[in-house]
Amino acid sequence: MKPKTQTTKGLIGKKVGMTQIFDEKGNVIPVTVIEAGPCVVAQVKTVETDGYEAVQLGFKDMKAKRVTKPQAGHFKAIEGGAVKKYLKEFRIVDSTKHTVGEIITVDTFAAGEKVDVTGVTKGRGYTGAVKRWGHHILKMTHGTGPVHREVGSMGANSSPSRVYKNKKMAGQYGNEQVTVLNLAVVKIDSNNNLIAIKGAVPGAKGGIVFVRDSVKA
Prior knowledge:
The protein has helices at residues 47-50, 69-73, 129-133, and strands at residues 10-22, 28-36, 39-45, 54-62, 83-90, 103-104, 114-120, 126-127, 171-172, 177-189, 194-198, 208-213.
């Protein structure tokens, strides 16, 4: 089994939206603003106890009555027993340097760094092959139609007399986890727990995203 990607730091955040900022030379930079953290370390996993190294982070407080007693007990080690709404495990190298209850803020990243951002894309429901896969539409004349956005030929009639698996057809589009690699951190706002990342990241406004240092930078 292929091991999961290891990283050195990560944060859970909420996508605020997109805007643009100007650099020192007056160039316009499109950025996505993410409310990243503060996150609390809910659990530390080590090779000795769990077979691998990882740190589980919690984000956004929620009422304790909304979770079961076992779930609430998971947070007892945190100061005050604050229950978190979102949990995410990061395969952080040398996880023992973190302790349960430790607060990790957006200052863990710095402007100029490269990061990977994971989120769930917007769900577009059941869509046709043109929108889902970018197929060309059929000719508008010479007897083609009445449908011009259908998928087209499915293959030969006599052989193989069936549709091959994995053919790009209509179906569910979006609402899947996607990771965008090597995005640049443009600005850090420690006072408001905001991080501005160059370019677009997956998901709608208000969606939960996971930010980690880039594994391919």
